[in-house]
Amino acid sequence: IRRHMFYYFYSLVNGDIENTAKHLLAMAKVGVGGDIPGFKRAVTDLFRRYLLVSAHGNFSLAQLILASVSIGGRYRIFFPVEMTLMVKALVTFEGVGQYLAPHLDIPTLSRKHIQAVYLRRYNPRHLFGELMRNIPELIDTLVNLPQLASDGSRSLEQFLAQGTPENPLTGIKSSLMSGAMVIAGVLAFVQGAHPLLWIGLFVSSVLFFLYGK
């Protein structure tokens, strides 16, 4: 959630309408009968109106986010409590800022600081440091991978050798499991989960595909 909130705010203050809507939807939970296309059109129109009036200081970031959340209710699109906390923080920030400097340009000021955070987060040295911290666990996983594959293969062969009763799903169970593992691995990778998790899921998908028939 925090990562999508960061990307959402970054896109918002930089006037990137398409990515603003995309990251807003990434944080949302769609209710029964939720209208995603309708919601996306509505918030995109809202962002365009915001860009037109923001230059004159007539629309605050907190009001924009709150309006987006309100639109979600009409389309049965719901947001986590972190969005409310974000609005409260922005209300405080904008209120104090406007009190001290009535003509303060909040989007421009926010853009300056969030770009600094963005550059610091994706600095090559920082990324290299993160990679090096995870190297020992990755190497340990790779070293144990042959043994894990062998144990998995042996277990599957023993299971298949038991001669279980014929099942109409027998021919597709391995494909279903393999596909499920791949999807889970992709979701784990996109959500920034620990490398051991999505690597294990991908390895499991290969094992199911090769030995689970």
Concise overview:
This protein has helices at 2-13, 17-26, 36-54, 61-74, 81-100, 106-121, 124-161, 173-190, 195-211, and strands at 29-30, 77-78. It has 213 residues and is mainly alpha-helical.
Indicate the proportion of strand residues.
Answer: under 5%
Roughly how much helix do the residues carry, as a percent range?
over 70%
Overall structural domain count: 2
What is the terminal-to-terminal distance? 38 Å
Tally of DSSP helical segments: 9
Tell the overall outline.
Answer: elongated
Radius of gyration: 24 Å
Strand and helix map with partners:
Layout: H1 2-13, H2 17-26, E1 29-30, H3 36-54, H4 61-74, E2 77-78, H5 81-100, H6 106-121, H7 124-161, H8 173-190, H9 195-211
Antiparallel strand pairs: 1-2
